[in-house]
Structure formats: structure tokens, C-alpha cells
Amino acid sequence: MHALEKILAKNSGKAEVKTGEIVTAEVDFAEINDLYLQTVYSFYEMGGEKVWDRERCAFVFDHYAPCSDVKSAANHKEMREFAKKNDLRFHFDVNCGVCHQVMPEAGLIYPGMIIVATDSHTTTHGAFGALGTGCGATDMATILMTGELWFRVPEIIEIRLNGEAPKGVYPKDVILAVLGKIRADGAVYKAIDFTGTYVENLNVAGRMVICNMAVEMGAKTAYMQPNRDVLDYVSARAVRPFEVQYTDPDFVYSESYVFDVGTLEPQLACPHSVENVRPLTRVLEKDEVKLDQGYIGSCTGGREEDIAAAAQILKGKHIPSYTRLIIVPASSRVMQHCIEKGYIQELIRSGATIAAPGCAACLGVHEGILAPGEVCISSTNRNFPGRMGSKEASIYLASPASVAASILNGKITDPRDYL
Questions:
Q1: What SS3 class is residue 100?
Q2: Hey, what domains does the chain have and what are their CATH numbers?
């Protein structure tokens, strides 16, 4: 069996599982973000009284953090009341950050677990050797009542990433290149196992970027075999003992794709689809793309490494008049570390605006939304019309380094000239 199949088998009390089989499995942790107050309503409508385990579920207030309107504030109030009533051990309010960042930081994510959250980018946690997937309000209410959920065992495809990334090529560029080939519907309800020498040597932040965007190919979940960086990170934080699952050497993938990372250059996902990926130089050859905004943040591109890359490029420089750069750290801990290392101060001097940790404009709610006709280059994960504000705005997705170099010039720019 594959490691993911072993996780499903273990949590469903079976010796083995097979592709296509439907199992009922125990959930190790459940997370509800602040878009899903309906989870609370469904819980009570279905007869729920107390959550099944106060130590295995949490709310994360990240999409409206802090609240910018009365309705979201009222939603938060109801969720807080539910959390207090159930005496939840873990609760992440508006001062914490994005769910997919704060949960690993708190030691709630570890190899061999099943984590289900009301967010499609829960595939991020495959970076830690976990099975992470998203669900809706009704399914989440079922988990809160029973601690279980049904799963269809997905077929598993391999994306093998070999080689060493050239200068100026970041994990975001790598996953965009993969997306450009596999396309947005290439892995619907499949699991993606990222393998290869590039993955084996990749740090925790880079692994999270790649697994995060597996869902943009339709994947149900993503996976990477934990390396030493992951095991050190988890061992220093995990609130529970964990067991790493390993794929049997004779396991056969349903499909395999191989990429030579060493041949890549910086990539762009052009408007208005995440699969509309082109090498950055090809875009530059065709046209000059002027920018109104650069945006560095979200569960894809708001970690310390991302902010450090931007600070390195912008140090001692200033963005042009009538442009803006929005920096949204993925968590308060990330922000704290970036302040301690001077990155935030350097970015403020360069003209950047620092926003509260959270999702912010990534879903078009507040802190950096776009007006009609504006063009933004962003380190986030989606660029369809309306994602960051107006449906008439245009979004280019890129690495944080590409965002920084581009907004410095007021137009899309190759970051390798600044490294």
C-alpha cells in the first residue's frame, strides 16, 4: 500500500484498503475557519450537543482577521461562543494567522494523521506526511459530533521532481510549472505524491507551498515522504506521539509525471486561470505588463522565507509612486520573526504596507483588494476573476521574489537580475 492508504487503513481499523473503496475513518484533528459558521448551525440541527473531543478540533479566524464589517464580526461572536461552550483546548483568534500556518506551528500537524478542515488548501499538510483534505459545513458538523468521516480511497499519481533549482527559481515556480502541464482538472479526486531528489532536499516552507497548490489540480489530498527537516520541525512541536507511514516499494502509481527542476526558469500564472502558466521571460518578450499592486502573503506565500526574499530584493530601494506593495505575514509568529530579523522594517522603508496576519485580500475581502482595471502580481494561489476584489482586475501569480522585483519596477520583471 501507499503511505496514504496505510493512514486510511489505520484510522478505519482495517488491515488494508484499495482504490475506490469507501471507508469510515477516525479524524485526528478538525479545523473550522471563519467562513463556515454554518458548521455550528448544522451541528445543532443534526442533534449535536458537545463536540466529540475538545482537544481535537479548533476554530481559526483567518479569512476575516480582523473583521471589516458587522456581519463577519457577528459570525466570529457566534463561533467564539461555541468554542467557549465546548471548552476547546485550541482556539486561534484574529491575532494568530492563516489556519495552514498556525496549526503546524502549534504542533497539531504530524506524520500519519488525518486532518480535515473547511478549506480546500488543507492539502498543504501533505508536506508533513499527513493526509489533509477539505470538506463542507455538513461533513464538518458530522466530524464534530462523531470524530469520523467517510472517505473514498483515491487513486494516487506520482509527480517526480528531480534536480536542483537554478538561481531565481523557487518552490512557487516549480508548482506553477507542474500546474501548467497537469492542468486544473488533471488530478480531480486523486491524491498526488510528490517525490524525487528536489523534494527530498526541500525545506518545510517549500514543501508547504507545493502541497498547498495540489488542490489547484483538483487533488483530494497531497503527500510528501517526511525528510529530516520535517521530522525535526514536528518533533519539536507535536502535541501527540506520531508514526511515519512509508509506501511499500512495490506500490504502482496510476500515473507518473517527471519534471527536471534544473531546467526551469521563473514562472507566471497569467490571468485569469491558475493553469495559464508561462515562463516569465516569454511574457516579457511579448509585452510590458504594468502593475498597480504587488502582494506577498497567504497560506502559499506569506512565510518567513517569502518575506525574506522580498526584503533582500527591496533593501535600500523604494517602490514607484502610485504603486503599492502589500505584505501579509502568514502568522503572528512569522511576523515576529521577520521583525526580529529586520525584514519588516526594511520593507516598510521600501514603501510596503504591512497588514495583519491572515488571508486578507487573497479571497477578496479586505486589506489589499483590487479596483476595476487594476493589475496585481501576487504570491497567492488563485487568480480567477474577482478573487482579489473586482472581477475586472487582473492577477498574475508568481514567487515572492518575482513579486518584489516586479513592483520595484512597476512592471513584471525577472527577479534573477536582483539576486
A1: helix
A2: 3-259 (3.30.499.10), 267-413 (3.30.499.10)
Q: Which residues contact 186 (CB under 8 A, 6 or more apart)?
A: 217, 218
Cell of 276: 495559464
Alpha helices in 243-349 (DSSP H): 280-286, 298-301, 304-314, 332-340, 343-349
372-384 pLDDT, tens digit each: 999 999 999 999 9
CA angle 31–33–34, rounded 5-degree value: 150
Among left, alpha and beta (phi > 0; psi -120 to 50; other), residue 102 is alpha
In this predicted model, what pLDDT tens digit does every residue of 34-91 receive, in sequence order? 999 999 999 999 999 999 999 999 999 999 999 999 999 999 999 999 999 999 999 9
Q: 166: cis peptide before it, omega within 30°? A: no
Cα 148 to the chain's mean position, in Å?
24
Task: Describe the strand order of the beta sheet including 57-60 as a list of residue ranges.
Answer: 90-92, 57-60, 29-33, 114-117, 131-134
- Evaluate whether 418 touches 311 at the Cβ level (below 8 Å): no
Dist. CA 194–CA 162, nearest whole Å: 10
At 97, phi and psi to the nearest 5?
Answer: 135, -165
